[in-house]
Protein: Prepilin-type N-terminal cleavage/methylation domain-containing protein
Amino acid sequence: MKDRGMTLVELMVTLVILLLMAGALFSVMSLYRTTYLKKVKIAETQIQLPLGVDLLRRDLQYAGFGLPWKFPENYEYTEATDAEASPYNDAPSDPPRPVVGDDGVGPNGSDYLVLKGSILGWSEASQKWGILSGGTSDNIAYPEPDIFTTEDYVLILEPVSQEFKAFPVAGNQLFCPGGGSFCPPSADETYLIYGLTASANFTRPFNRVDYYLDTDPNEVPARCAPGTGVLVRALLKADGTRNPVSVLECVADFQVFLWWDLDGDGTAETRTGLGEILDQAYDARFERDHLRLAEVFLVYHEGGPDPNFTYPRSTVDLGTYSFDLSGISNYQRYRWEALHFSVVFQNLR
Ligand SMILES: [Ca+2]
Ligand SMILES: [Ca+2]
Structure:
């Protein structure tokens, strides 16, 4: 018998290796990626609808995904250049905090939220990730050998320490037999690879999105009440400027609260504003250990002014938070809506 196939022992060994490598972690990541892509697709076609807020929910869930926790000595990168965005930088050399922001710095006392993670980039490249095997074995063991193209720039992390091993590396440099310096030193070690962007001129080892209210008259539709704005999702570009895309129109207020497990008993017990991170100088490590949940409030109106309509109250009450409408002229003529939702950070700790 020439084609005897595998012996039982060989089969068992292979199975054990496959189980170790392709087990729970991979199926979770795969599920994760599929869900994310599905949601992005839905949102892309209806981005002007309140459903666009679902993007914010997704981004909160994925904050921290593919972020390096530790940099090599003397490693530096650049981040936001605009005055409104730069206070939330971790550049030039700190590990990126998954969540940053501040209270009341926007129109009507609204908040400014910043989220960081590889997958937040939305580019085809940033939706990719893989496993790089060391030694003389095949290069990318999962999900497929050639998932990255020569255009994709990637970040390589050591999976336990999340220490970053190589940046930037183009997809065609990932083939380990032949031994690049970014390859795991032995066959039984693996590194994680996260796609970042297809552009060779990127400047930081993560993607970043900023959420804030924009009240620039050129951006706000004419139907919106005076003083309201659009909630934008702004991807930070390589040059440090923001690329804003509207996700919700006629927004009067945007508030984010954070829930922390400060006593480490596994349950979040402390609610703070976003500004707590800056006030207390919490770093990336502290967020991973203690930050558990985000709570978001949005106040906006549907349609335009209606002379035959009277909104019955001067505040929008949302349980633990209320917004005073009386600062908005003619607020009674608009149909005010409120959104209140909570999101568990799935990529911290
Ligand atoms: Ca706030
Ligand atoms: Ca607790």
